[in-house]
Write a structure and sequence with these properties.
mainly alpha, 2 strands
Length: 188
Amino acid sequence: MFEKKKSNYLEGLRNGDRETIQVIYTIVFPKVRDFVFKNKGKHHDAEEIFHNALFQLTVRLKISEIEIESSFEAYLFTMCRNLWRKELNFRKKWVRKDELTTLKSEEYNHSDAIIDQERWELFEEKLRLLSPNCKKLLKAYFKKVPYDTIVKQFKYNSENVAFQRIFKCKKQLADLIKKDGNYEKLKG
């Protein structure tokens, strides 16, 4: 039952197969729940995020084919992680007078979340095309590793050299993204 292939999961979601959905839930939800718990969430938050991700993935599957480079579990977990981070950012905007107002838009726009996921996938796809050194450097940069640490880790002569190298890698990544045929569709 747990040995389903990536294509079987996708086909099961596309067709609404309950057994496949249950297997996905059994395998992936505990990881999502743990991530949400570690990042200021509760059980119902994890369930909502997980269900939103499954819904968005199902909608995308019914519209077009999806090519998943990683494992299905990693792909779905990343979708959930991105949705939870977006939710946390949304909640931060509603903090007033030390009180957290959990106002949520009644019309949660799933199409926006789908587009965000497609943007993320385009970004990851193009990041994989960079040199190994650029990938490592940008991953450190995106994790907000301090420049002095980057200098030591990559054995650069100065922070200025690290800054220049990061700038060049970011430019290469941006150029790859802009050359992709989906860029115009996703940029707005």
